[in-house]
Amino acid sequence: MKLTKGQTLIELLIATAVISTGLFASATLVFSNLKLSDRDSDEVVAVNLAREGIELAKQVRDYNWLAGYEFDDGLYAAGNDYSATPLWDGKLSTADVAFDFSTADFSSDKTIIRRSTSNETPDFFTQNDASADPTVWRRLIIFHPICNDPAGLSYKNDGEDCGTQAKLGIRVESRVAWGRKGQDFSFVLYEDLFDWR
Hints:
Number of helices: 1
Largest sheet: 8 strands, antiparallel
Order of helices and strands: HEEEEEEEE
Structural class: alpha+beta
Distance between the termini: 104 Å
């Protein structure tokens, strides 16, 4: 009687393990790419929201120049409070851009970015329309005075002012935070605005 060769149980287990490892690695790669794709799209939105906050500050500064006001009018509050949220309804009027300085951190509902449901501005992101749908993003703008210190430029924090030093400009710090699938993310963008008129 002639014996025919076939696969043993050990060979079958090894082949199954190799195939399973390859399939598991492929599945892990696919899910990792999907997760990174979601995070990348969130970061694009966050960067644009941060950039928009800085552009709104520039718009206020430029409006002040054209109207003959001090360059930083509306970019600080009494008592050296520099944390704010933008008040803007999405319309094109420059004079309608303002900042609300009653917010100090991300715990305030005023920092929530909302998606407009208005027919006039559909899908517009806003922070001052409480009737709009909330999103996962929050934004806070901080205006740090830039002072002419004898040792060079100095940047002040909340509660500090330039004192006897000349105020040369404002560092606009636009912070955006969001949560996705149980994780918290943030993005910060800075730009210095000077009174170059």
